[in-house]
UniProtKB/TrEMBL annotation:
The keyword Ribonucleoprotein applies. This is Large ribosomal subunit protein bL25. The keyword Coiled coil applies. PANTHER family: RIBOSOMAL PROTEIN L25/GLN-TRNA SYNTHETASE, ANTI-CODON-BINDING DOMAIN-CONTAINING PROTEIN, RIBOSOMAL PROTEIN L25_GLN-TRNA SYNTHETASE, ANTI-CODON-BINDING DOMAIN-CONTAINING PROTEIN. Belongs to the bacterial ribosomal protein bL25 family. CTC subfamily. Pfam families: Ribosomal_L25p, Ribosomal_TL5_C. One of its GO terms (biological process) is translation. One of its GO terms (cellular component) is cytosolic large ribosomal subunit. Residues 173-207 form a coiled coil. HAMAP family: Ribosomal_bL25_CTC. Residues 98-177 form the Large ribosomal subunit protein bL25 beta domain. GO terms for molecular function: 5S rRNA binding; structural constituent of ribosome.
Length: 209
């Protein structure tokens, strides 16, 4: 994974008011920490940081007053409504050091006919070198029939990465698509459970005369 260099400035004012002022100036408040070092409170350039964090495990080289700090994002806080970044926690890493991260799972291919594919996991926990974190892992569902499943242990990981989570956890489950009769029966059962009663329409003789 390529490094993204960001130039930071040291932050000396704190609190919600100070953070809002930083964001109004198109910048992002952040903290850099790890390896027993004292946390560094910094301000990052807004647009460049936003672009870099499109990748959830971006490798960020933070330049602060001439000193470089190699980091990965540990927590990105976003506004729940507008989606802009409010604050970033950056974890200091070292070259060659292994870290555990959640990597997106992408499905490829088409399952067998008349099946439904359910993706149980959208991310997979893996251990990898900090400078070689995979952007994603790919799971092929090509030709899978109803009743098939893919467990975490069956996912092929990029070289240098290993599974960090539960190997038996299901990533993908393939089931048979419901027939029209089954779908109607499920709908009727759901309506009955909800107390919905359908009124039967009885045609009266001569009604349309």
């Amino acid at each position: 994974m390529a490094e993204t260099k960001l130039t930071a400035t040291k932050r000396t004012s704190f609190g919600k008011g100070a953070a809002r002022a930083i964001r109004r100036s198109s910048q992002i408040p952040a903290v850099v920490y790890g390896h027993g070092e004292a946390p560094l409170h910094v301000t990052l350039p807004g647009h460049e940081t936003l672009l870099a964090l499109r990748n959830s495990n971006a490798l960020l080289n933070i330049d602060l007053e001439g000193q470089s700090h190699l980091t990965i994002p540990k927590d990105v806080q976003r506004d729940a409504i507008k989606g802009f970044i409010e604050h970033v926690d950056l974890l200091v890493v070292r070259r060659g050091e292994k870290v555990t991260v959640d990597v997106p799972v992408h499905l490829e291919g088409e399952a067998g006919p008349e099946t439904v594919v359910q993706q149980e996991l959208t991310t997979l926990s893996v251990e990898a070198e900090a400078t070689h974190i995979p952007d994603a892992v790919t799971v092929s569902i090509e030709g899978l029939e109803a009743g098939s499943h893919v467990a975490a242990s069956q996912v092929t990981l990029p070289e240098g990465s290993s599974l960090a989570g539960d190997p038996e956890q299901l990533v993908v489950v393939v089931t048979a698509a419901a027939t029209a009769a089954q779908a109607e029966a499920e709908l009727e059962a759901a309506e009955a459970e909800a107390g919905i009663v359908k009124e039967e329409h009885t045609e009266v003789e001569g009604e349309n005369a």
